[in-house]
Amino acid sequence: MKFRVNRDVLADAVVWAARALPNRPAVPVLSGLLLEADGEDLVLSAFDYDVSARATVEADVAEPGRVLIPGRILAEITRSLPGGQPVEIVTDGSEAVLTCGSAEFGLLTMPVEDFPTLPTAPPKVGAVGGGIFASAVGQVAPASSRDETLPMLTGVRIDIAGETVTMAATDRYRIAAREFGWRPEQPGVTAAAMVPARVLVEVARSLRGGEVSIGLGDGVAGFESVGRSTTVRLLDEQFIDYRARLTDDWPIRADVRAAPFVDAIKRVALVAERNTAIRLTFGQGQVLIQAGGGDIGRGAEVLDAELSGDEIQIAFQSQFLLDGLAGVETEFVRLNMQSPSRPALIAEVPGDADPAFRYLVMSLRQA
Description:
Layout: E1 2-6, H1 7-18, E2 32-38, E3 41-47, E4 51-58, E5 60-63, E6 65-70, H2 71-80, E7 86-92, E8 95-100, E9 103-108, E10 124-129, H3 130-140, E11 155-161, E12 164-170, E13 174-181, E14 183-184, E15 190-196, H4 197-206, E16 211-217, E17 220-225, E18 228-233, H5 242-245, E19 252-257, H6 258-268, E20 277-283, E21 286-292, E22 298-304, E23 306-308, E24 312-317, H7 318-326, E25 332-337, E26 344-348, E27 357-361
Antiparallel strand pairs: 1-5, 1-7, 2-3, 2-6, 3-4, 4-18, 7-8, 8-9, 10-14, 10-16, 11-12, 11-15, 12-13, 13-27, 16-17, 17-18, 19-23, 19-25, 20-21, 20-24, 21-22, 25-26, 26-27
């Protein structure tokens, strides 16, 4: 096997594929990246039985072949190579020799025949712009749980109904949901899937360019864009009825400019001890943001707000509140409330249309 490839192209592809490598591989070969050179393409693959990643780049292939190289060290090496120089990789017995300019590395290869067969991509069900996809994942994924003992809560629910896709996540203390349009392969298609949030975040982070194709089938989801593809084993489809919880009756509504609101909460939260509350007092024409009062000190700031309904003081865990506000993409954010002891719904203010992004967050009991 012998090929030559642009240094920046190789480093980018290796680092991207290496993200799928397991931290504690069940067998040693799963820590390797599979390099396959043929024709004018170099394909780099990683697989841990749950998640697979493939990146295809152009290469000058002199001798086709396959080689399995320890993935993390390859990623470190390619990132450190001098720029402006091509990279050549040649297999020589049990060694893969990598040269770039005056730098040379000999990496011991792994038995390629022991590497598991990667899953085939599931049937494509539709596609969406990479920017919209990344935005939706960024809005919803923070509400997923990190507690692996409850797998259902570590995923993002994807509901497909014709030309509309809804993503939702919850960790029991909050629910985030985002709706967006897409281009289905067949009109009237319906499907549902639970995708691990950590995988979806990595996919969204790396597949911003162009259009993202989504495939579903046989308990696997597939995502593909600009020469890169990922497959992931789906979680159990069981999930809460999140839509019913997001369509309650809200007698109190407050509209605030989103960016100044976020900045003010971050400033005031500097004196809040860990897991203490941010208190919001909504009155006519303003909102008072308060925190602290313990061993560190206290902070307060007043912003303009348009209130509809009774005046109210309500408290939230600061990071939960900020995660919801970070998902708002409109100039104004709307807080829909019932009482100080009930959850509040954070939503965008798009005029008369239903908000695309909604975030339900539990309030905190105040002393």
